[in-house]
Amino acid sequence: MTLVFQSLRKEYGEVVAIDDVSTAFAPGMIHGVIGPNGAGKSTLINMTAGSYTVSSGSITLDGKRLDKLKKYQIANSGIARTYQNIRLFDQMTVIENLEVCFYPAEVAGTWKEVVWPPYATARRQRRREKCMEILRFFDLQGYAEVDAGGLPYGRQRMLEIARALICNPRVLLLDEPAAGLNHHETADLTAKLTALRSPDRIMIVVEHDMDLVMTLCDSIIVMHHGKLLFRGTPAEVQASADVQLAYLGTANDIDDIRAAAQDRRAQLGIRTRRRS
Amino acid sequence: MSVAEARTAVRPRSSRIVPLLVFAITIALIVATPFLPNYYVRVVNSLLIYILLGIGLNIVIGYTGLLDLGFVAFYAVGAYTYALLASPQFDLHLPFLLILVIAACLGAITGILLGIPVLRLRGDYLAIVTLGFGEIIRIIINNLDWLTGGPQGIARLDKASILGLQIARPVDFFWLLLVVVVVAGVVAWRLEHSILGKAWAAIREDQDAARGVGINTTNAKLAAFATSATIGSIAGAIFGASQRFVSPESFTLQESVLIVLMIVVGGIGNILGIVAGAAILILLPEVLREFAEWRILFLGLLMIFLIIVRPAGIVPRSFGPEKLIRGLFGK
User: Fold this and answer.
1) Domain positions in chain B
2) Among partner residues B187, B209, B219, which is closest to A89 by beta-carbon distance?
3) What is the ipTM of this complex?
4) What is the pLDDT of residues B51-67, one digit of tens each?
5) Domain annotation covers residue A13
6) What is the pLDDT of residues B167-185, one digit of tens each?
7) A77 neighbourhood in chain B, CB within 8 Å
């Protein structure tokens, strides 16, 4: 199982956001996507998940074309995602946010649920057990009946990942999962994501937190002006002069890359709390 | 029901008293209605019809979050289905139950027909298009004289009967409506809690994220439009049978707005809210009948008052039928 981008291109009128990107992602690994602002990282995620259309080229999973499918069909092909700006179902409870993901598998039995209560109860119970399992993994079990919109920010991030995971996706796309998290929460996230690495799952993480990317990822691609600039292991990326040039123009130190990431957070209006 | 009572209705500490009170009032009303003069029975019947319409429209507005201002069209479809199939108009006299089934099917089809073109629309745009749809249906009925009798409407509709049992007096319709309202309420409530209902809620909260978790929003929305229209159409057929006369005047935009208002005042997405909203908006004008020219003013003031003190409706979403029942048994 591999996810393959073939000559992928995305244009907005005159602007070329993604320019001829060809690469492949293997299962069992966590792939990082980094690059300066406007490099096209989120566009890649959005095209893979079907939020954006593809201008030309193709995206295939296991040889099956994804880019011609509708967004919900892509999701049902085993692609799950989180969003840069958290998008939960705010006025639904935490557990309902997960339960609703069983819709594609269970909608056919809706009328049976309506007319035959014992069937509905049994099915609901089965559904909720699976959800509680995931919630426990993300330490959210105590919040199951709370409205998702009322959760603290860090918990909302976790819930979004839980929602992406509930249907056991083959591809998990995480768009800046650590944005806005404090150091403690980021460490927790790193541990959880590491635990989620599985031989039959492709994980792709777009992230500006370089510490997180370098510790978490097995393989990193670097985007720059919509092009794939570099691909390699974290060590290779850190050693690459090209990458440093892309990020900073002149600098020669990974610390400066971190500084650039900090600037980016400041731009996004996200305050990073220091460890006390 | 006064606003003060309604306010206490949501306090968790009164969780036992309020359900008992609501239950007692409901039972008293049901037991008393058959003994009331016909005029009052008709008022209760009209209340029940509006509750039924509210339950239907709430599926689209409350559960799925799509503002539909043309709901009265489905009500008209149901009423005219009865009028055309059980009157001297074409000398057709089908049995009432069969017409109910036909009306339900026609309602569902019209619901889907409306649903398809508006799938991409939300919010204000959807409201305007559905409003237009409601008017289109009314104007078609008004002008299609050979079929609908035009502005004169269709008169002398058959008396309804179910399996030989004649349904003609207001009190007969009271029992019929009561059964239909309870069935529709239970179905709507169970739908809300089904997996489809959760998908509707997800669409309401964030349509794009709903697609992202694999929900076919097209189908889910069409299902909402179809179920909602089915209930509206059934309400229309019963209305036609009880009035034994239909004309386009009964299906104006004002009716659509009134049903939306009931839902908003009562509490969006909550069946108990619809009952409360209908009670206020249908019964109040009757109570204030002596002050005819002041009625609209009273209603306006009440709206302003409610919007200030209870912007989310009289009964909040969290106080649903399950809470009421649980409170009743002291659990």
Assistant:
1) 38-266
2) B209
3) 0.86
4) 999 999 999 999 999 99
5) no
6) 989 999 999 999 999 999 9
7) none
